[in-house]
Write a structure and sequence with these properties.
alpha+beta, 1 helix, two-stranded antiparallel sheet
Length: 88
């Protein structure tokens, strides 16, 4: 698999929500993208998206998107690492 050209890259941020279920097992929460014939329509993915003007950084983008997409409340957020840039 080849790397995309720099012109094809977009800035975005995702979060990997790890939750504990009722039995105490750790689970990763995925979303199913709306199949609107867009770039990622119908695919499984992680909550996330493009930065908006009010986002302080990529972590803020990821946390905002997680609240919008899966309803992750601010009180449940405990980031264990910061986002790093990675071409995808």
């Amino acid at each position: 698999m080849s790397r995309p050209d720099a012109d094809d890259l977009r800035t975005a941020a995702v979060i990997v929500p790890v939750l504990r279920d009722d039995d105490g097992e750790l689970r990763v929460l995925l979303v199913v993208r709306v199949d609107d014939r867009g770039l990622h329509g119908g695919q499984l993915g992680l909550p996330g998206g493009r930065p908006e003007a009010g986002d302080a950084d990529l972590l803020a983008t990821a946390l905002r998107e997680a609240q919008e997409e899966i309803g992750l409340p601010p009180t449940m957020r405990s980031p264990v690492c910061s986002p790093r840039r990675s071409p995808t």
